[in-house]
Each structure stands twice: as structure tokens, then as C-alpha cells.
Amino acid sequence: METILGVICWIERSGQSLDTAALRHLLAFLRSQNAIAEEIEADHNPSPVERHVQAYGRYLHHARALSRQTIINCRPVVRDFLNFRFSDGEVSLAQLRAIDVTDFVRKRVSRLNMRRAKIMTTALRSFLSYVHYRGHHVRPGSSGSDRGQLVTVVHSSCDWPR
Known about the structure:
By secondary structure, this protein is mostly helical.
């Protein structure tokens, strides 16, 4: 076991990476030696919010070719926003309004440092662009009278009162 871990550490230090197939073989070997527990297959049925977050993550990865770290930073913000807006469980992106975004940001921004506030506003702008990309022409006003891109509601983190 120590030899295997030593090899993995050496590979990582050398700047190389193990491919997925090699990792699967390694895990199968370790399981056959009872060095690690058997894989547990979860019967996971994602919530409506989680399905939208996953779809957004795939969009960032495939359509926008963003880095893994960017996706990791954006997904929790979007999850929090969707849970904030659609607490009843059903998600309808076409129902998003400017007031939903501003309420969410105002309630969160005072608790964040400048770096986290910037990540939050960037993630929201990105998500709202994605909503528009998906064909949901969301209404910016709370009255719903005029149409436009909701992404313009989210200003730089510097513009929000703290």
C-alpha cells in the first residue's frame, strides 16, 4: 500500500497525471486487496434546483470551456440563488425577476468579503446569461411590463452597499 501511494505522489510531483482508466484499475486493485471499501452506488435523484445547477455546470464546461475552478466557484452561488428564489422546490427560470436577484445580493453581500462578493456577482451574471442563452427571456422589472436581459441587474460587487 505504501508503495502505491509513493508512486502516486511521485507522479503528481513530476507534473504528470494519472488518466481515468489507470485510476479505475488502481481502485479495483485496492478494493480486491481490501485496502479500501467497496464503491457505494447511490440511488440519487437530484432536486429540481440541483438539476439546473448541473445543467449550468455542463454549459460552463462544454459551451464556455471554463476552468474547473471557475465552475467550482460558480455552482454554489447559483445553487444558493435558486434555493433562495424557488424554496418550494419547483424551478421556473422564466419566472426570475430583477427583484429576485437584488434581494438575494443585498441579503448576502454584507456577510462577504470583497473577493467572495466579486465571485458572487460574477457567478450571478454568468448564470443569468446562461438563462438568456437557454431561451428564457426573463423580465427585468418586478411588474413584468418590459422585457430585456436580466443580467444587466447584477452590477459589480463594488456597487453594492455593504
